[in-house]
Inverse folding.
């Protein structure tokens, strides 16, 4: 069995966490043993495009309209709390809201008009 993604230059990816079965990297072995999946940049972009189509190019929390490049994927139920990468669990948010929210299940305080401190 061999896992070898294609790079944008078409030459394959060398020295990555992907491996061939003769020389598996410890990181790749960990991902295979734990069943953790990696989201590649194409899948991430595809999900972001679908979310823009569904909800518009604005932050889910503070409602700021932003260019797509300035929006991040935010998990409604954080991955650290068992959330998934499914579209149902993802929303677009600005960097400020995403960072302020951390792994909380609640909206960021500033988006509700609450001053922290």
């Amino acid at each position: 069995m061999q896992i070898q993604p294609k790079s944008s230059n078409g030459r394959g990816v060398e020295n990555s966490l992907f491996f061939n079965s003769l020389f598996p990297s410890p990181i790749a072995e960990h991902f295979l043993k734990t069943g953790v999946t990696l989201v590649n940049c194409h899948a991430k972009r595809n999900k972001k495009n679908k979310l823009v189509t569904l909800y518009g190019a604005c932050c889910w929390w503070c409602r700021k309209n932003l260019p797509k490049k300035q929006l991040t994927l935010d998990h409604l139920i954080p991955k650290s709390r068992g959330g998934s990468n499914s579209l149902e669990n993802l929303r677009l948010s600005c960097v400020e809201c995403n960072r302020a929210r951390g792994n909380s299940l609640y909206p960021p305080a500033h988006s509700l008009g609450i001053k922290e401190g």
Notes: The longest strand covers residues 71-75. The first helix runs from residue 26 to 34. The chain has three helices and two strands. Strands lie at 71-75, 90-94.
